[in-house]
Specification:
- The complex is a heterotetramer, with two copies of chain A (about 350 residues) and two copies of chain B (about 325 residues).
- Chain A is built from twelve helices and 14 strands.
- Chain A is α/β, with parallel strands linked by helices and about 350 residues long.
- Chain A folds into two domains: about 200 residues, Rossmann fold; about 130 residues, Rossmann fold.
- In chain A, α1 runs parallel beside α7, α3 runs parallel beside α4 and α9 crosses α10.
- The radius of gyration of chain A is 20 Å and the shape is globular.
- The two termini of chain A are about 35 Å apart.
- By secondary structure, chain B is an alpha/beta fold.
- Chain B has one domain: Rossmann fold (3-Layer(aba) Sandwich).
- The longest helix of chain B is centred in the N-terminal third of the chain and has 26 residues.
- The chains are: A alpha/beta (about 350), B alpha/beta (about 325).
- Chains in contact: A-B, A-C, A-D, B-C, B-D, C-D.
- The structure holds thiamine diphosphate (2 copies) and magnesium ion (2 copies).
């Protein structure tokens, strides 16, 4: 057992792609919205706040319904104000520290706020409230209270948003005791993880990679949760373990399929959570494959890629037949130019190339 | 406002309890019994007392590094507070929080907060809960003059006004933030004047006069309970001791200045007033003092004789959903 | 104030250049030439123009996500701005910044800033340099109505007042932050009224009238240069287009509202006024427009024909003291 | 070459303990103050700002000199206002984001601000200015500008300051491209690194561990700098490499001396900088000892301990004879109680015990 791992509770994820349940291909965007809707219906203590999650707040449309002028960043909250009203869908002024702090105060007193922080970068504006209040209250008050808040924000590059709108620093949040951080990688997992986050009694950050938001995947009709702190295998293989998270998970899967054509049988682990971290899933995998490549879009130093490498180098050392490789963004801010931006983000070629180097093929 | 007799006795008890708690706490700190820095609020008793006189356990307050007075006024137990400062398992936070993090959620006390300004939005959030759930509870944010520099205060006042939340912003202007005078750091005449930037009422009150505080707070809290939104109250007051236990305030303020505030001492003020207006008898006042003096002896004894937390406590209370394993990464 | 003829011509040129830049930029964005989101400032030309009319390259401004107008008013080259938006190596930031990060330090333009409110303290810092070094330079912080929610604005105004810095806070109140109306998010009547919280002058100006802006800014900047400290100017204005290129503003504002602002168009206003008062000839106005129209064609051509940055540029400019190696951790 | 390493410039550190130069035993505290004084004298563009760095700002003492009522947090700036005046020793209101932002603006326009952020935890309040402006300006503006600011703050536990005043998250800052982060470990190194930081044209954070501030060590009389990005060996040895940083460096040194008595010859590396990171020094050491233990007081996940482990597991894999071990604080906030706090912070016994386990003795 490690410091930071959740107890090995049985993970119930009976639903999903490949499972024989009713469902349909849905976009990540739509699935996210639907999950919010489900959770609002499920629990009257759940409400959502953020900038322009409705927009034009307080006004009504021609039918006298609350105006949904903006539909929320990335349409996450589209239509919700019309069904749930302005008490549960709360537009905020632009003041991330103030309204995240208010969400913490609300959570401390018996509600379950869900906070849209829009772009992941804006976490920095509210960082003290996240670190000093959301994450620490339970511990420093000796377990007297809980802080059931869910935050979500859009991370990552690939859309030309440049240095101040492309952050991916989930490792910074995973570093913070008291927070949980999940990194869904498709429509199926965002549904299960967002629902789990909202029902969780600890503060949870849900990272939505911008490049995932328009992707489509199979999503079961019925509501379900995915255990926070459990990863999944995207592909079984025996030659090498490739670990992805958020956007890099589909990248790793595609790279593995490419590699399969060249006779390399890669196992692909999708972390899904970075705190708690499912150490078992990648340790077990390395025990089988004896090689590991970790793929993280974030900058390298003290990253989640580093963390996975550190865990493996300590706990699966005897299984390792080759150096541990990290494939990450460079130690730079995100550039604007499309070509530079593409060069920043690990792609299938980089992953496949690293694997081939590692295997000396 | 007329103050009912019970409430008057409560106010005297509370102010005297704060005073004696702080004196005792400082004494114990100097004896090495505190495990960290302590910030005494003595001199400032009238503010928390006059405000919390209007609150019940169903109302919420947020507080600061100088939080003992807020705790006591909100009904926390001196024993468990003292034990917390002593770092004991019986402390309000099992000895894991210390002087700067005393909280009691059963009393609506959301915690002292050691980041200047950071507690303020918590009270706004509590007020949001009240509004959302349809409670008639209010939130009160206590903060110092120094916290007026912080942006999160501005954000909190704006947000509370936009959402018309039942919250009172209670600024304890004790004229110094560490050694920095309020006149240097806060670029406005009276702090209460900033209320107009948020379309809320703002009032400056003599923070050494529990009656005046009671009146102003009564109005602000009633307004909040009526659903009319937030208010700002500035309490002009003074801390009798240094910024923290080891601070020597004469390096930045004069004996004369201190004397002028002591001359307006909140407790003495109160005693004079109740005597003059025959609101409480000398016997009653004496009895209260005696009781509290004993309470403080008991608190120290309790703290002294309490056990240290078990070392396993290092790893608990990080998450609700799972316990942290014992040994870190060693 | 009387505006000298050269300045008048400069003002017309600048407003028209901003207008045409934004129109051209949006056109190019819709053609897919921008590599990211763009925020047009057309409609808001009078503000930056009337303010920057008083500045030289030795003065500094900070800006926002909606920064093209500020850049142009501060003298940046439309070619290099357009090239930046196209992501080209010849862009103001070598194609590494994009629309939301255009800067030109040789012109005292400290950069557009994509974090709402984050640019404000930079102008305060520039004013601190001015004061520290004994320059007579000033700093101007441009920000929107939405930025009034942010604590860093409060902190910046308080700090500037405490240190009596030569800075002007220029709030472009275009009545919306994304889809949120200013009346919803900013809990005060006129934003300029918040100035009194910082003991500085605050004035609300018709942001569609370059003459009015010129006058108000002249006073604030002169005051700053005289060492009398900061001021706040609120410019009531309107953005003609959506929040960003793909936004459809009719979802949250009416055609009538838009029309009422178009009726007060800053450029048309200016043309009428100079005609009525015979300050500039029609020929001169026409010549300026022609010149700028050509300038925009040239800017697009320049941007279009410029090369992409070399891929090595990904790794440069992180530190002064060392270059980042090429290949990340792959 | 690695992403994040400084070019291998010759490191000139001719002075220091063991060198035959004039000097004396001095406290870290006094040395810090003296270094600020030296740098203020050296460069008129250098000035200092922070809360109560003088205190009682604007008033004068009986002799008509500016009042130095507070002497700065931890006496860092004691007496400076009397010699350099209130223009260069600038008391600020409590507004970390505002004044750090102002410092960045001042640095962008030609001065060299030094910012006292008091406790390391308060970095969180100013985090957006640090991340979005200080660290990114040079890159996102295409190299047009530089941001020569120095920040310093007191980190770490051991003084009963509890959850909100004991942070140690230099890994979070080291993660950020564009920032440099140094972690001096004694009076000698804080002098050289603080001077280097103030003369550096990039933004640098200097972490002063609270437990170091009252320590005493040999400090040369003459002024000197230590290259940012260079570590040092505190002890040579052949059996195992122990890596420390900040307060854990003396802990590691002491542990090594204890181990020596038991016949274990440990090499001790003191990182001194965590960004850039001197990878060579610990890679070379592991190449010799074939074993490594990394000791970091900070919480473990995505920490600097993780980063060092990741670098070693990639670049010195073939030299490793045993798993890489991390000794860190647990994944919890800092507790108040003295016993719990002591249990949080890695001590000599924990380091020595881990080494012995690793060596199977
Ligand atoms: C964000 C932050 N900055 C600085 C400090 C250090 N600090 C602790 S108390 C204090 C002064 C606070 O003054 P005020 O708000 O007037 O409260 P008082 O101490 O007078 O009760 C300062 C600067 C802190 N704890 N948090
Ligand atoms: C800290 C932060 N929060 C939110 C955003 C997203 N955002 C970008 S522009 C904007 C509205 C800004 O409104 P205003 O200040 O009025 O400027 P305008 O767009 O009207 O020019 C918002 C919310 C951001 N960029 N930064
Ligand atoms: Mg005070
Ligand atoms: Mg606006």
């Amino acid at each position: 057992m490690t410091t930071t791992e959740a107890p090995a509770a049985a993970s119930h994820q009976p639903l999903g792609p490949g499972f024989d349940v009713p469902g349909r291909e849905t976009t990540y965007r739509e699935t996210f919205n639907r999950t919010l809707r489900d959770e609002l219906n499920r629990d009257p203590d759940v409400f959502i706040m953020g900038e322009d999650i409705a927009g034009g707040a307080g006004r009504t449309d021609e039918e006298g319904k609350p105006l949904d002028a903006w539909g929320g960043p990335f349409a996450a909250t589209k239509g919700l104000i019309q069904d749930f009203g302005p008490e549960r869908i709360r537009d905020t002024p632009i003041s991330e520290a103030g309204f995240l702090g208010a969400a913490v105060g609300a959570a401390l007193t018996g509600t379950r706020p869900v906070v849209d922080l829009m772009y992941f970068d804006f976490v920095a504006v509210a960082f003290d409230q996240l670190l000093s209040n959301a994450a620490k209250s339970r511990y420093m008050f000796g377990g007297q209270t809980k802080v059931p808040i869910t935050m979500f924000a859009r991370s990552g590059g690939g859309t030309g948003h440049a240095a101040q709108h492309s952050s991916n620093f989930y490792s910074i949040l995973a570093h913070i005791p008291g927070l949980k951080v999940v990194v869904p990688s498709d429509a199926y997992t965002v549904r299960g993880l967002l629902a789990a986050a909202i029902r969780d009694d600890d503060p949870v950050m849900v990272c939505n990679h911008k490049k995932l938001i328009n992707t489509t995947g199979f999503v079961p009709d019925q509501s379900y949760t995915i255990d926070i702190g459990k990863g999944r295998l995207l592909r079984e293989g025996k030659d090498v373990t490739i670990v992805g998270m958020s956007w890099t998970s589909p990248v790793c899967k595609n790279a593995a399929e490419q590699l399969a054509k060249e006779g390399i049988d890669a196992e692909v682990v999708d972390l899904l959570s970075v705190s708690p971290l499912d150490e078992e899933i990648f340790l077990d995998s390395v025990a089988k494959t004896n090689r590991i490549v970790i793929v993280d879009e974030d900058t390298p130093r003290a990253s989640m890629a580093s963390e996975v490498a550190a865990v493996v180098s300590e706990k699966a050392f005897d299984y390792l037949d080759a150096p541990i490789k990290r494939v990450t963004g460079p130690h730079t801010p995100m550039p604007y130019n499309r070509g530079l931006e593409a060069a920043f983000i690990p792609d299938e070629a980089a992953v496949a190339g690293t694997v081939k180097n590692l295997l000396n093929v | 406002m007329d103050i009912p007799p019970d409430k008057l006795a409560w106010m005297y008890t509370t102010m005297y309890r704060i005073r004696r708690f702080e004196e005792t706490m400082l004494e114990q700190t100097f004896k090495g019994k505190s495990m960290g820095v302590t910030h005494s609020s003595d001199g400032q008793e009238a503010g928390p007392t006059g405000i919390c006189a209007h609150l019940t356990d169903k109302d919420w307050i947020s507080s600061t590094h100088r939080g003992h007075g807020h705790c006591i006024a909100k009904g926390l137990d001196a024993k468990r507070m003292m034990a917390e400062i002593f770092g004991k398992a019986t402390g309000q936070c099992k000895g894991k929080g210390g002087s700067m993090h005393i909280a009691d959620f059963t009393k609506g006390m959301l915690g002292a907060n050691a980041i200047v300004g950071a507690g303020i939005p918590l009270a706004v959030g509590a007020a949001l809960t009240a509004k959302y759930k349809g409670y008639d509870s209010v939130g009160v944010a206590f903060f110092g003059d120094g916290a007026n520099g912080q942006g999160v205060l501005h954000e909190s006042m704006n947000l509370a006004s936009v959402w018309k939340l039942p919250v009172v912003f209670a600024c304890e202007n004790n004229h110094y933030a560490e050694a920095t005078p309020v006149e240097y750091a806060v670029a406005v005449g009276d702090i209460a004047d900033r209320a107009q930037s948020y379309s809320m009422p703002g009032v400056t009150v003599d923070g050494m006069d529990a009656f005046a505080v009671y009146d102003a707070a009564g109005e602000a809290i009633a307004r909040a309970r009526r659903g009319e939104g937030p208010s700002l109250i500035e309490l002009k007051t003074y801390r009798y001791h240094g910024h923290f236990h080891a601070d020597e305030p004469h390096k930045y303020r004069s004996k004369e200045e201190e004397d002028s505030w002591h001359a307006r001492d909140a407790i003495r003020n109160f005693e004079t007033r109740v005597a003059e207006q025959a609101l409480m008898s000398q016997d009653r006042l004496t009895a209260i003092r005696k009781e509290i003096d004993q309470e403080m002896l008991d608190a120290v004894e309790f703290a002294e004789n309490s056990p240290m937390p078990h070392l396993d406590e290092l790893y608990s209370d990080v998450y609700v959903s799972y316990s942290n394993p014992l040994q870190g990464l060693r």
